[in-house]
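G., the chain you wanted modeled:
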Amino acid sequence: MKFAFCNEMFRDVPLRQVFRTAAEIGYDGVEIAPFTVARSVNEVGPDARKAIRDEAAEFGLEITGLHWVLLSPEGLYLNHPDDGIRYCTRLYLCDLVKFCGDLGGRVIVLGSPKQRNVLPDQTFEATWDRTRTALEECLPAAEENGVTICLEPLDSAQTNFINTPAEAARMVREIGHPNLRMIIDVRATLCQGLDAAEAVREHKDDMAYIHFNNANGDGPGYGDTDFVPILRALRETGYEGYGSVEVFDYSYGAENIARKSLETLRTAWAAWAA
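Predicted structure as tokens:
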């Protein structure tokens, strides 16, 4: 099993230092939130993209991909009823795909809960159809750049659209494209009252990534979540992708969170293997 963490918990620390810390702790990769690099990925030129990729490789790391992708620039909305807003968002998602590929990343985690909600005057079905069309229009770019877009089910406290792994899997199966998959987010799954290990087993053919976190939003080791059954399910289903630590409370300190989370996950892996 390969492990990464999401870089935004390091706030304004330069990526080179983030990579150095990740390597020193023992991670295999880093997942990048684009807004930590620039307001728009179109502001990051070819040389700067190559420099990020090369710095990660210098420390023996992979950039696994991107997440929090529609937070910035302002005004993006994946399934908005306004054709112009939806068109601009689709174009930017294609730009993100290219950016991800240029960094050597292979996964875009499409969460962005506030940029995909069913709006008050809209129906679930119409929002679903617009989402499906937007994703379908981006998949040729994803295929060209060797990137998999992973739809992220998020709990109802974050969004009112695609809350469960089953809903994300439905979209993946309806579209039926190899560059569209889903991610299991442990926290979001638990917050919906579901079993994360069972979700892994049920959706093993639909998923290509997983976020490790506690139901309380902290990293592994900072809550009551038992990761042994989840890691067992990943191993038993033949999962070969990354597991990335994503947290929402940075108060323990980024390096402390990264270190304790990896220790917890490795201990859980060893406990299962024993």
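The chain has nine helices and eight strands.

Shout if anything looks off.
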